[in-house]
Specification:
Chain A: It catalyses: CO + a quinone + H2O = a quinol + CO2. Chain A: Dimer of heterotrimers. Each heterotrimer consists of a large, a medium and a small subunit. The structure holds two protein chains of two kinds. Chain A is built from 20 helices and 35 strands. By secondary structure, chain A is α+β, with helices and mostly antiparallel strands. Chain A has a seven-stranded mixed beta sheet with strand order 3-7-1-16-13-14-15, with helices on both faces. The N and C termini of chain A lie far apart (81 Å). By secondary structure, chain B is α+β, with helices and mostly antiparallel strands. Chain B has a single domain, classed as START domain (Alpha-D-Glucose-1,6-Bisphosphate, Chain A, domain 4). Chain B has a seven-stranded antiparallel beta sheet with strand order 1-7-6-5-4-3-2. The radius of gyration of chain B is 15 Å and the shape is globular. Classes of the chains: A alpha+beta, B alpha+beta. The interface between A and B is medium-sized, with 24 and 17 residues.
């Protein structure tokens, strides 16, 4: 046989399994423009839906007159809340235990809210008809500030629940209050703060922004009136969860619903939730008996479907004189907009924000989050991060910097002396998490050495002298960030969404000729699942990755899973993949032993085959075993070679990273330039280093966007001021720096292959690195805290306020 | 958004004030004005087509004039609705100061806008509003530089 001539290493390499820089198989179609996105779907007789949206942020809807719109040739229907009410679909449940209007029911709560749904023969007619729908509004006072919203005389936003004293997450203390979520030990923390040598206090604002995926949200709903089966193609990050939700709210039996996520052009959390567009398209298809397509435009995407962040974080951090952190206190005012539609596991209304003790060994901590309604769009999704983890990372990494200022200490050294030590893992944090593994000191030393940290500080000191002497107008900022993420939600015992446990799944079928198909409960939106999951299987099963098809996103064929977000695909579905493969290998071992006429225990696994122990010339390859599984009657074994695994992770995974950003800042123009960015990621076992690097590049670029300019800003009237890409910052090649990537490997002890997840780490850790660089540039001149985004104007203002323009 | 400006009109104050109350002159000078009619003393109804960036819409609105201190000073308030394109409301304080044969018109206008037109970014809107008011006043000054009978 030919492969007898290959060494085991050569055979392993030929599989393109874990650790291989395998090229993305998806890119063959994407780079040719041959992807198949929702908007590429064209069905016979398909109609188009478009929304009439509110120009007001808060108003009563007095009347809706759709006569002129309905009279326009080509218009098939105009739906309003009145039409949906008899079906009970004018409101829908949100992922956060609240409910949300599908179409305005008497009032609107944010600008861009859906008021009526026009259905027409083509997109242009639908758009024209939208203009013809006359809506009479009565303006109401607008509240865009969450602190104002909680004042006693603030206008009542949610009239539907104004007398409700109990919400989905406990008592409500005001008509615009949603929930209070407390973690940790308040008494002990406040005692530590009182008695501490040093306490640094600061308000840190993480502004409202938006995931803004290249492809906006959309769907095609098609009700087959003959079979009674509803098929919905859509930009769904969690197709199975959407199927269950559609069934629960529509009353259509779940087996009669098929949800298909085709190619998705980026999700970043924006495509996790359920939106009025989906409900209206389904209803319109049922009413008209024809397929109905709805796709948002960019303005609609930015102003109505899920925003991210908007956390006001008040922090107090206590330390000894020599810099040992003794306690952390945090209160968050969380602006959730008009409806609480956050995408978080049910028991975590502020997500995993209680990871805010970060990478540090902090003995006591207390956290309290108050959710608040305002006249802004609903959402609060995890934009390229695990649930509220980027807010937590930004909070602690800013508080560390503020504490360093208070102590007059170097911020890198302050971090180093407070890191959780390697020998402390598994580490139980003061706010309740059990960190699985980590080696922070090694990563930190490696990072500091790689950038010549001492040298950079010397250069910075010299620059400050030159600036003071009038020789330069540019300052140098060194932005540090070390953060521990919490991803891979999650253990079913404490993680669910709408009661659905957050396990995930993989089903594998080995074909008679030794190739395979694997189906998963997740869905790629650009992460490259078809590439990496095949690599896990290649290593586990000894089948070349190129002989394995990975399929996701069709609920009629894929096993049930909770979808892709929060860096959960590799930690959860990746684990399911390995576990299902191991079931197959167990059966393959029995088949091999039968074929080799030895006992099961007398064969052992060797890359792509079972060999007889002590006699490696006698073996059966996976290819041979697969064929035997289908053509031999093996006593005691069923034919076929298939397996499925539903994996309930025992714990989250805790990837970490050390980032250093070196930034030049022009004091007179506020312009910035990233001179160097060093990113060390530890995501445990690395499946495809090239995809990891791509993920890091993409995540860092989104972090750059958020830190340096991207925001959803409102004026006092509740107008979205950043509703187009002219005002909403998306970095181009021009702004994007060259990133240096590096890594350490600390496997997760509880994950079958030791992998931890990486897609979101760079965004989580990148934002504080960029922001800290801006702050650090001005530290010598007295800057303590300046809110993001750090666009040129705001940086110029920092310099102005510090008197540097005099 | 606040706009202020000062324009010199080559006509005496009484004529300037009269012209500002003349629906025909106003209709000719307001950019995009399709219709303007007096609905009562000091009250007008107007239909105006506005184009701001990619948004073009017909605004219907009412304007009220407070002439307590006229002709030295007067103020205007109004609001207009453009359906899906959004809405605008605001007011202007205008003073007319005699300077020989000419009149100096000073105004401070406060405008609030909402909906799609507001979302296009304040930079674009401020520029457009300035351009439109400049267009109005240059047309207005031209109207008044014609012989009185015209």
């Amino acid at each position: 046989m030919t492969d007898q001539t290959m060494t085991p290493e050569e055979r392993a390499a030929s599989l393109e399994g874990m650790g291989c820089r395998r090229k993305r198989v998806e890119d063959v179609r994407f780079t040719q423009g041959k992807g198949n996105y929702v908007d590429d779907i064209k069905l016979p007789g398909m109609l188009f839906g478009a929304f009439v949206r509110s120009p007001y942020a808060h108003a009563r809807v007095k009347s809706i007159n759709a006569d002129a719109a309905k009279a326009l040739p080509g218009v098939v229907a105009v739906l309003t809340a009145e039409d949906l009410a008899p079906l009970g679909l004018h409101w829908m449940p949100t992922l956060a235990g609240d409910k949300q209007m599908v179409l305005a029911d008497g009032k609107v709560l944010f600008q861009g809210q859906e008021v009526a749904f026009v259905v027409a023969e083509d997109r242009y007619t639908a758009a024209d008809a939208v203009e013809l729908v006359e809506v009479e509004y009565e303006e109401l006072p607008v509240v865009t500030d969450p602190f104002r919203a909680l004042e006693p005389d603030a206008p009542v936003l949610r009239e539907d629940i104004k007398d409700q004293k109990e919400g989905a997450h406990g008592p409500r203390k005001h008509h615009n209050h949603i929930f209070t979520w407390e973690q940790g030990d308040r008494e002990a923390t406040e005692k530590v703060l009182e008695e501490a040598d040093v306490v640094a206090e600061e308000m840190i604002y993480y502004h409202r922004t938006h995931p803004c995926p290249l492809e906006t949200c959309g769907c095609v709903a098609s009700m087959d009136k003959v079979t009674g089966k509803l098929t919905v193609w859509g930009t769904f990050q969690a197709p199975h969860a959407i199927r269950t939700v559609v069934s629960l709210i529509s009353g259509i039996a779940e087996h009669n619903i098929r949800i298909i996520s085709p190619d998705i052009g980026g999700g970043f959390g924006n495509k996790v939730g359920a939106y009025p567009g989906y409900v209206c398209s389904v209803v319109a298809s049922i009413v008209t008996g024809r397929p109905v397509k709805w796709v948002e435009n960019r303005m609609e995407n930015l102003m109505s479907t899920a925003f991210a962040r908007d956390y006001w974080m008040k922090g107090r951090i206590a330390a000894t004189k020599d810099g040992r952190i003794t306690g952390l206190w945090c209160h968050v005012t969380a602006d959730h907009g008009g409806f609480d539609a956050c995408a978080d596991p049910t028991k975590f209304p502020a997500g995993f924000f209680n990871i805010c003790t970060g990478s540090y060994d902090i003995p006591v901590a207390y956290l309290c989050v108050d959710g608040v309604y305002t006249n802004k769009a609903p959402g609060g999704v995890a934009y390229r991060c695990s649930f509220r983890v980027t807010e937590a990372a930004y909070f602690i990494e800013r508080m560390i910097e503020v504490l360093a200022i208070e102590l007059g200490m170097d911020a890198a050294e302050l971090r180093r002396i407070n890191f959780i030590r390697k020998d402390q893992f598994p580490y139980k944090s003061a706010l309740g998490w059990e960190y699985d593994s980590g080696d922070y000191h090694t990563a930190w030393e490696k990072a500091l050495k790689a950038v010549d940290y001492e040298g950079l500080r010397r250069e910075q000191a010299q620059r400050i002298e030159e600036f003071k002497a009038g020789k330069t107008r540019k300052l140098l900022g060194i932005g540090l960030s070390h953060f521990t993420e919490i991803v891979g939600a999650g253990p079913v015992k404490n993680c669910d969404i709408l009661g659905l446990g957050m396990f995930d799944s993989c089903e594998i079928r080995i074909h008679p000729t030794g190739s395979a198909i694997a189906r998963l409960g997740t869905i790629s939106q650009g992460q490259g699942h078809a590439t990496t999951f095949a690599q896990i299987l290649a290593s586990e099963l000894g089948i070349p990755a190129s002989d394995i098809t990975v399929e996701e996103g069709d609920t009629d064929t894929a096993p049930y899973g909770l979808g892709t977000y929060g860096s959960r695909s590799t930690p959860v579905a990746g684990a399911a993949t390995a576990m299902a493969a191991r079931k197959i290998r167990a059966k393959a071992q029995m088949i091999a032993a039968y074929l080799l006429e030895v006992h099961d225990d007398d064969v052992e696994w060797d890359v792509d085959r079972f060999v007889v122990k002590g006699n490696p010339e006698r073996f059966k390859t996976m290819k041979e075993i697969a064929f035997a599984a289908y053509n031999q009657a093996i006593p005691g074994l069923e034919p076929g070679l298939e397996a499925v695994s539903y994996y309930d992770p025992p714990n989250m995974t805790y990837p970490f990273r050390a980032y250093i950003c070196v930034m030049e800042i022009d004091v007179d123009t506020g312009e910035w330039q990233v001179r160097q960015f060093y990113a060390l990621d530890d995501c445990g076992t690395r499946i495809n280093p090239m995809i990891i690097e791509g993920q890091v590049h993409g995540g860092l670029t989104e972090a750059l966007a958020i830190a340096m300019g991207q925001e959803i800003a409102y004026d006092e009237m509740g107008n979205v001021k950043t509703g187009t890409l002219m005002d909403f910052f998306i970095p181009t090649a021009w702004e994007t720096p060259n990133y240096i990537t590096d890594h350490t490997v600390t496997p997760s002890p509880h994950h079958p292959i030791g992998a931890k997840g990486v897609g979101e780490s760079p965004n989580v850790g990148g934002v504080p690195a960029f922001s800290n660089a801006v702050h650090d540039a001005f530290r010598a001149f007295g800057l303590r805290q300046a809110h993001m985004p750090h666009d040129h104007w705001r940086i110029w203002q920092i310099a102005e306020n510090l008197g540097l323009h005099a | 958004m606040e706009l202020t400006d000062e324009i010199r009109v080559p006509a005496p104050r009484d004529r300037v004030y009269a012209a500002l109350n003349d629906p025909e002159i106003l209709a000719r000078c307001i950019p995009g004005c399709e219709e303007l009619k007096a609905t009562g003393p000091g009250e007008y109804e107007a239909k105006v087509v506005l184009k701001i960036g990619p948004v073009k819409a017909r605004f219907g609105g009412v304007v009220k004039l407070d002439d307590t201190n006229a002709p030295e000073a007067f103020s205007l308030t109004g609001e207009g609705k453009g359906g899906a394109a959004g809405f605008a409301k605001g007011g202007a304080d205008v003073t007319l100061t005699e300077d020989g044969e000419e009149t100096v018109l000073r105004y401070t206008a406060k405008v609030e806008i909402g909906g799609k037109i507001a979302q296009l970014g304040s930079r674009l809107i401020a520029g457009t509003a300035k351009k439109l008011s400049a267009k109005f006043f240059s047309c207005f000054a031209e109207e008044l530089s014609q012989p009185a009978a015209g």
